Amino acid sequence: MKARGLALALGLFALTAAVVMAAAVACSSGAGARPVQIVVATLTPAPPAAATVPVGGKPAAPPTGVPAVAAPTSTPQPPATAAPTSGRWIDVDVTRYVVRLMDGPTVLKTIGPVAVGAQIDTGAYESTQTGLFYVYNKIPGLQYDAPYQTYISDWVGFDQQKANGFHSFLKDANGNVVDSSTGRVSNGCIRTGDSAAIFEFAQVGMPVLVHT
What we know:
By secondary structure, the protein is an alpha/beta fold.
């Protein structure tokens, strides 16, 4: 029995060797033959856990193909510089670096100081523009902020044309604040240390008045 198994193993080895030699001869014979190339597959290491964090905040370049978001049409809209007189809304004072959460004329909460755009009303993509806007989206959780290669949280978008919105101060991948600068320092967005309060207060369609 052992002799038969040994003979079978030797036969398979001989057959395999013959097939390999035949393949080598076929590849190396004939005009224009090229040497056999051995390709070694390599495994790409899995990306770090931080890479799974969604990309958020303001893109480095203006968004393309994004339709304009119309203001709510259930009630007549006030002029672009007029503060709402009823309902909840958000007031942004880019001169005093303050955000106020409002209910009609009543201030419910004051948040400051905040960071605003280094440019104000220049019309550039990096500018914080003044006027009456409306919250168009909210994104919870930690997000990667590509222009600054950092992270933010509590995104609340209000100026879709310039991709400006409210969000936290700049953070690292673990959610720790790495830049709490205020004043005129951002590329158009409103950064704050109390972004969670704005995120909780804001609703899609809510008016946002930005003024000097």
